[in-house]
# Entry
Amino acid sequence: MKTFSIPLSLAYLALSITPSMADESALSVRETDDTISISRGEIPVLIYHKADVPPPAGIDPVFHRSGFIDPLHAPSGGIVTGIHPDDHYHHLGLWHAWVHTELDGKELDFWNLKAKTGRVRFAGVAEIRESGFTVAQEQVGYLTGPDAEPTVILKESFSVDAAYLDGANVIDYVVAQTNVTKKPLVLPAYRYGGGIAYRGPLGWNAENSDYLTDLGKTRVDSHTTRARWVAMFGPAENGNGEDATVVILCHPKNHDAPQHVRTWDNGKMFFNYVPIQETGWEIKAGETATMKYRLVIFDGKPGTDAIEARWKAYAGE
# Structure
């Protein structure tokens, strides 16, 4: 087990945080055999899963997976992610994976575990640091059948860094994917996959939750639009019953930024930044593709001015 206390960086000091706020912002990072967790005092921030997490009892064990974040918490401690919903058992809080891909003419799906052609898995801890961690992950393909040893297609360096700034939990989510095969990984245009994916609490519905994008789009009209940021809000679970908001910012240097989004209009809360929704892409043999996102989680419903200010700070405007 490793534990670190987090001092404020010079960058955060530049935001004129008062001493009382500085005391509230002290975080700790703790590693166990199965997880890496980040907390603020006694209040949890997030848990990353190194070990495979099984699906609910009685569900096909193919849905076990490692290498994802759940739960993710609002500053007051309420939970703002959902896992293993009965409509999509492969939805895992906060995660990423490619869906519709081709390698040397063979189709591979690292997202839909039931397809048994690929998956994402934890592969080792690279660094535990004061602000977070970097882990190795792999997107592997079953090139000769689901019972054979899988082949590593993409090696990932996945970094998560946290801070508590101006009343919000701020999480930087950075994924660098290297194609370690001798062929390009072709990513045809597809409606979802890659980027970053989020499943909200399973109790969020059309009456108590919604989306809001930087262009003012909501549940009814945001799907397939481009967005610099997307906010999702509803009542946090296991908290005080009040609303919490999760905002995901897309870095302006990401491929195809501002990326298209996948949202649902059925009342359930799912979100995905999709780098290939409109135009296909490929990661060449030996090439590394990097994508960066920032999550801002706060109590209450979103205010567009405050979110826009955080976007400008992230984008360097």
